[in-house]
């Protein structure tokens, strides 16, 4: 972290007047996932989404319970986080953003996608493929036999030694006068800078960076940083943008397009910062803001 200051099988069942579908099968993560060998425990490595239509055949499903099967063993475990057959990689399934232990629950509806996460267990990650049978069975009122979620045997995790670095840096904006602004949303004192992503090893499928404003994103103010400690000016803040002046997107992973999987390397992302007027009146003084740069790998 750096700181920048500024298929569905169907069988009719006669158990009720309704013709229930038999279990549904979903294979998740059928791709090559490249990750750093060493990650903090609980770090999300990858995500896979299953729509309600895939899970129960409807836009909204009624969740009844879940079974968690560590390492796809066929024997249930408590969960919600379970082991996989790849050393250092765990998995969990989230419904409405929440993980559930094995068992039956009161009816709960969900219309948003189920999320399956691969997580770092805290161990050194070793390259490997997923094995075993299914890892989760999600039971719904619509499909009482459940949706069985496999971690696809076609999926492969490649552990890579090393990560990129993003050096700390300070960007100093030039002085500006209140007369240089023309109203709320106007800017002045633009300063170009480069966001550095250095020493990236080869082998990753994708490297991304995420900008996180210190103090949290301001709703309705894209690219604008909260005032930092010691700021004395009023009615003005710092705005971060790309080199074309488009406001920076916070809290979203952005691909480092120049990254070459075959070679790795260091990269410079051109950006700019400026003052932005936020209220009708401006009181002169000092202005500061900061954001962290987080890197993610696939």
Number of helices: 1
Give the biggest sheet: 5 strands, mixed
What level of helicity do the residues show? Answer: under 10%
The number of strands is 22
What is the H-and-E element order? EEEEHEEEEEEEEEEEEEEEEEE
In whole angstroms, how far apart are the ends? 17 Å
Shape: elongated
**Would you tell me the structural class of the helices and strands?**
mainly beta
Domain Fimbrial-type adhesion: 166-298
Pfam family, one: Fimbrial
InterPro entries: Adhesion_dom_fimbrial, Adhesion_dom_fimbrial_sf, Adhesion_dom_sf, Bact_Fimbrial_Adh_Pro
Keywords: Signal
Question: In terms of topology, how is this protein built?
Answer:
Blueprint: E1 2-5, E2 24-28, E3 32-36, E4 44-50, H1 52-56, E5 61-68, E6 82-83, E7 89-95, E8 98-99, E9 103-110, E10 114-120, E11 128-129, E12 134-140, E13 147-151, E14 156-160, E15 169-170, E16 187-200, E17 207-213, E18 224-225, E19 236-242, E20 254-255, E21 265-277, E22 290-297
Parallel strand pairs: 1-15, 2-13, 3-14
Antiparallel strand pairs: 1-22, 4-10, 5-9, 5-12, 6-7, 7-8, 7-10, 11-14, 12-13, 16-21, 17-20, 17-22, 18-19, 19-21
């Amino acid at each position: 972290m750096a700181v920048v200051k500024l298929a569905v099988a169907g069988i009719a069942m006669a158990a009720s007047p309704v013709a229930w579908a038999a279990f549904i099968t979903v294979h998740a993560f059928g791709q090559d996932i490249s990750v750093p060998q060493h990650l903090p425990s609980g770090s999300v490595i990858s995500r896979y989404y299953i729509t309600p239509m895939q899970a129960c055949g409807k836009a909204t499903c009624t969740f009844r319970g879940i079974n968690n099967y560590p390492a796809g063993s066929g024997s249930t475990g408590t969960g919600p986080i379970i082991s996989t057959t790849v050393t250092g990689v765990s998995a969990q399934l989230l419904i409405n953003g929440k993980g559930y232990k094995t068992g039956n629950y009161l009816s709960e509806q969900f219309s948003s996608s189920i999320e399956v996460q691969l997580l770092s267990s805290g161990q050194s990650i070793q390259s490997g493929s997923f094995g075993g049978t299914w890892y989760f069975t999600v039971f719904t009122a619509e499909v009482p036999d459940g949706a069985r979620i496999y971690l696809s045997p076609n999926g492969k995790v490649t552990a890579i030694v090393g990560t990129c670095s993003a050096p700390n840096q300070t960007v100093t904006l030039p002085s500006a006068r209140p007369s240089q602004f023309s109203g709320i949303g106007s800017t002045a004192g633009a300063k170009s800078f480069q966001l550095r992503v250095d020493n990236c090893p080869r082998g990753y499928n994708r490297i991304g960076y995420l900008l996180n404003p210190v103090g949290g994103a301001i709703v309705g103010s894209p690219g604008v940083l909260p005032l930092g400690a010691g700021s004395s000016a009023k009615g003005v803040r710092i705005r971060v943008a790309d080199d074309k002046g488009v406001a920076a997107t916070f809290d979203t992973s952005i691909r480092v397009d120049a990254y070459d999987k075959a070679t790795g390397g260091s990269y410079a992302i051109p950006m700019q910062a400026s003052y932005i007027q936020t209220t009708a009146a401006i009181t002169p003084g000092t202005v500061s803001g900061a954001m962290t740069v987080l890197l993610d790998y696939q």
